[in-house]
Write a structure and sequence with these properties.
By secondary structure, this protein is an alpha/beta fold. It is 45% helix and 22% strand. It contains ten helices and seven strands. α5 links the parallel β2 and β3. The two termini are 30 Å apart.
Length: 229
């Protein structure tokens, strides 16, 4: 499968709807709580930009948006997602503003946001480049896009991590959620997702400058940042 055709949107929406009730707990267990640290780090990065308005795309149950809302109390933080069941959890957990929306057709005008974030969501979208272009469209000139997602470590960790990713993680997630098939695609989506310099080049092709990548937890995850040209 080529980048841009990774996931069927209908399947992804239905899968997330089925696991919404146990999504947060499952993520924390599978990552041994590391995902919480990753999101807090991202929220601190966003705070340094002193944004007035932030859009968290594919917010899901609102984990990252809630961290940003706490870190940037003076900012308006909106969480959007195409899965209403996930957004319902975000609202109940305290995210002040949520909106059901497709990341490939955001219901906002050009240049409305200082920062756009997307955590563990771009990888699930049908067209990476189109999603990045749409996020660029709603950013003000000079605004920042921040992508947080899984990656693959290099060196001696690569082989054992791949084995965990393809054989252990789906079974554990299936046990925790009762929906094994909802996680079967995860390993393949991470393998196909652009990483490192490849992601930076994609951001730069779609209207961002000074793109940079920051590896987290020995490369298990990564943060990508671009500035809207």
């Amino acid at each position: 499968m080529g980048a841009g055709t990774i996931q069927d949107p209908s399947y992804v929406r239905e899968a997330f709807a089925r696991i919404a009730d146990r999504y947060v707990t499952t993520n924390h267990v599978l990552s041994l709580g590391t995902d919480i640290l990753w999101r807090r780090k991202v929220a601190r990065m966003v705070r340094r930009w002193k944004p007035g308005r932030v859009l968290d795309v594919a917010t899901g149950t609102g984990d990252l948006a809630l961290e940003i809302q706490d870190a940037c109390p003076g900012a308006e933080v909106i969480g959007s997602d195409f899965c209403a069941e996930m957004l319902a959890h975000a609202g109940r957990r305290g995210l002040a503003k949520t909106l059901v929306a497709d990341a490939l057709a955001l219901p906002f005008g050009d240049g409305e946001f200082d920062v756009v974030t997307v955590a563990f969501g771009l990888r699930n979208m049908a067209d990476y480049a189109a999603a990045i272009r749409e996020m660029r469209r709603v950013l003000k000139p000079g605004g920042h896009l921040l992508v947080l997602d899984f990656s693959l470590p290099e060196g001696p960790l690569k082989i054992p991590y791949r084995w965990y990713l393809h054989h252990v993680l789906p079974r554990m997630a299936g046990f925790l959620t009762g929906q094994t098939d909802a996680y079967e695609y995860l390993g393949g989506s991470i393998e196909e997702f652009p990483r490192g310099r490849s992601m930076c080049q994609l951001l730069e092709r779609e209207g961002f400058s000074d793109a940079e990548a920051l590896a987290l937890s020995f490369g298990v995850a990564a943060v990508y940042i671009g500035r809207a040209s």
